[in-house]
Structure prediction request, 1169 residues.
Amino acid sequence: MPRMMLSEKTEKGSFKKSMKKLLLYCKKFWWWIALSMIFGAVGVTFQIIGPNKIQDLITLIATGLNSSGVDLAAVGKIGIFLVCIYVAGAILSYFQQFILTTVTQKLSKKFRHDISHKINKLPLNYFDTNMFGDVLSRVTNDVDRVGQSLNESIGTLFHSGLLFVGVFIMMFVTDWILALTVIGATIIGFAFSLIFMTRAQKYFNQNQKNLGDLNSHIEEVYSGHNVVQLFNAKEQTGEEFDKINKRLFTSGWKSQFISGVMGPIMGFVGNFGYVAVCIVGAILALQRGGIEYIGIISAFMIYVRLFSNPLSQIAQSLTNLQATSAAANRVFDFLEEKELSDESGKTLVLNDVRGDVEFDNVVFGYNENKIIIKDFSANIKAGEKVAIVGPTGAGKTTLVNLLMRFYEVNSGDIKIDGVSTKDLTRDNVHKLFGMVLQDTWLFEGTIKENLRYNTENVTDEQIVDACKKVGIDHFIQTLSNGYDTVIDDAVNLSAGQKQLLTIARTMIENKPMMILDEATSSVDTRTEVLLQKAMDKVMEGRTSFIIAHRLSTIKNADLILVLKDGDIIESGNHEELLKAGGFYADLYNSQFEEV
Amino acid sequence: MFKLLKNLKKIDYIFMLLILGLVVFQVWLDLTLPTYSEKLVNGIMGKINMNTILVNGGLMLACAFGSLASAILVGFLVANIASRLTYNLRRKVYDKIQNFSLGEINKFSTASLITRTTNDIMNIQFFIAMGLQALIKAPIMAIWTITKIVNVSWQWTTATAIVICVLVLMVLIIVCFAVPKFKKIQIMMDNINRVTRENLTGIRVIRASNAEEYQNAKFEKSNDEITKTTLFANRVMGIMNPGMNLLMSGLGLAINWIGAYIIKSPLEIGSITKYMSFSMQVIMAFMLLIMIFILMPRALVSAKRINEVLDTPNSILPGKFVDDNPDGKACVVFDNVSFKYPDADEYVLHDISFTANEGETVAFIGSTGSGKSTLINLIPRLYDATEGRVLIDGVDVRDYEPNSLNKKIGYVPQRGVLFRGTVKSNVNFGDNNATDDTVANALSISQASNFVSRMEKGVDSSISQGGTNVSGGQKQRLSIARAVARRPEIFIFDDSFSALDYKTDRKLRSALKKHTEKVTKLIVAQRIGTIKDADKIIVLDNGNMVGIGTHDELLRNCPVYQEIALSQLSKEEL
Prediction:
């Protein structure tokens, strides 16, 4: 609770906003939530009736003992009534919990589902500016946190709130002096515990920070182990470790201490109230001389617990909800990101293409101020092999991304067989190009699943055939389960083998045009020759775009486009460009110069 | 677990004795408090005066305060013991890992070692802090309280015993059903993570293949699984709270109800309240015990993982030879060296022999997996040769005192590794005490002066953890500068030039040649261009040395070399 009060207005605003969004998000479950609340309310009512009946019971015993004897039949009646109420209360609160759990889990599922689908609807540039880890932690940590704490907090908050109010009323109805005593004692107890609580947060934060420091230090030193060892830096890094470790020791025992005594302190708050009730109750009984005070005191002994417990629980749920709100905010932020434009209205379909590609005054920048491709035009005839070369940052990959419509051009047009790609759906454009990228992407599944992937109607023969063509069939046969071997960490595939698999996958997709983006950059030069052969097979008769870092790979291209700062500065085939003695020739020759 | 407890110091045992005393005191107070409330309640029925009330009330208050005070003291001591134990343990594990060789590191994997040093040790701390107190307190509390109540009335005792049995049974059943599910949920969470990661890393491929629905279907499957399992686990866990409330209230009612039958005098009515307090204490004690059993398995797993690290013997033992008069040059000899990884069947290197004379440049080339990196790792003893010897200036590297050996070597790893600090602290890393001039000189040789001078504070600019604030090529140049600043006798470049473009590569090599003439250079490379002018080129194929000589010689007589060369350059260019 103190945290709530300290938090700034803006934080409060975002708290409100995210809670409102959360409420709207679970509209589907409103009726269920309402039902669970009703169960909860009835359960609480039963719980509050309990002490009142115990009071009657004790009074009955006390008066009975003072006179003729205890009316056992009346005691039995109350007892049976209480048993019924207790059991019914337990069942009702279980139902409340059951429904809440179900709702929160369904909600988490919906969250995860929506995030996962959202990933596929976002424009690619979202992922250029956001880290994968960040999206991942939203799917797992944040959703989990929202689910967990809603499950705990909402139920507790509601239950404790009602209980608090109910007990409050019942106490005043029963005896206002004792009621004031309980409230006073609880406040004093809490004030006492505040001394600790206010410090707790500071130490917790400190401890968290030290832990983080230790983590990053260890990560750095362990992953740079070779360097630390060979540069005799063990002492140097060890001193740093000692410093952090000592800090962690201090903050560690402090925060451990505080969280350890939290329990006893809460216990003390209860005990303090208990003692106060005993003393004040006895004084009252003395002054007013009433046997019935025995019953009242007994009832109040229960009220004290019922009253002080919900308070701490409410405080905790509220802190929990704050964390929930932060997590929910992160999830909603992601879900509200701008999506790719809707294309359901497009009807033009391009299926069998020749493969003429035309770039027509294409201008593009990831944002308006930073233009990466300036007025790019090129005319590529069907079946040509086009290589794009240039220094890092020249916009090579960007060009390919535009071709695939991963991004939209700012102005100008890209035409395939004379049809503007803007008039086609993105799916349609994707169907026209096969892609092999530098990062080989395979998923955990069998080799066959990886090869077939999303292509429909592929026979096993076609798969084997493609693998034979790229020359990976023999290797697959040597694996323990052949084509049904599951690719995971246990199967050691070299970078070259992985790339051959993705080439085979592209071959199976059998698309009319090809894009090879730095496909051989992460393998050594001998493997590269193998890959080159495989790719030549895939490119046969297809319009192909090749981006390469190593110039040896593109010497036989029909057309080489030299890109620098978003402009084509040279174009032609290898011999022509070498003869011209420009940028390309310079780049090419620098690999042979003597030192 | 017990093995780890051996790390406790004398003071910890003294603390534990103190805790024992305090806990006994606390339990005594907790058991005394209800007797005063009994007196008060009984007093109401009989004759009572203000004085009695105030005396008894004051004593109760004293009990409550005393109990709190000793609980706080116990909390202090326990937190101290737990933190000190983990402090020492962390230091021990860290030191142990620092002395691991590459082989041991790879056996565990870096990620696993990090978790073992951090999370697993934290788990132990948590368990000691929670468990130690409970372990001492629960039995004392349970036994003492039971002796107090067992003679009061057999009816009450029976009721209490039944409630405790049901409670323990209920918790055990819930735990047995739910805990395995929670473990499963962890695995399923990893699944969700994996599928999402897959989706993110393959986003271009997925879109190019129009495979969004394929991915969604896969995700949905994992999502369904985890939702179902979590639902089950949470629904089972949901029984806990209402169940416990029911049992507690039920016991309260039972005590009152039974009291109606067994209490015969109005002056004994206070014993109901007293008994109620006692029975709650017993239940608390049992809850504490149950808690230990729930916490224990996790701590045991962590303890095992920590012990695995501590019990791993070091495979690379230090020698004694110290080179007192380093002359700034060194000759490296491989004498019939073979190597295989421990536990592996196949040799990675077969019978390698060559000599790198003082000041010579020796290059190693071959396809991935041919053993180039492994070979040069034998010189600084990242691994030890399985057979044969590696000699520096005629002395086996295994006989060198490690610091003395390391001083001779300037090592540049495949991927640039930087540490948090400044440019200067990174170049002047470890036991090197280079002057500012040397640092500047090293930066200029490694072609890093340019970009460093453009950084905000020059050589004092900060480098973030792992060097994430500089580019890959810059990282590589800084780690070359680090090796140069050491003024070693031997340079080892493990494929360090690949991240550089051709022009920088060339400039750097000519600067090295000019300024570090006397130093022996061993270079692993992929580009023919990088190594063309080496004094000796050693060609490796599947761990065998298939050629040694200069570029021109090898082009004439080594087919593997020709193949590599041809894959990079055309015939005319050669």
Q: What stands out?
A: Chain A touches chain B through 150 residues (CB under 8 Å). Chain A has a mean pLDDT of 83. The first strand of chain A starts at residue 357 and ends at 367.
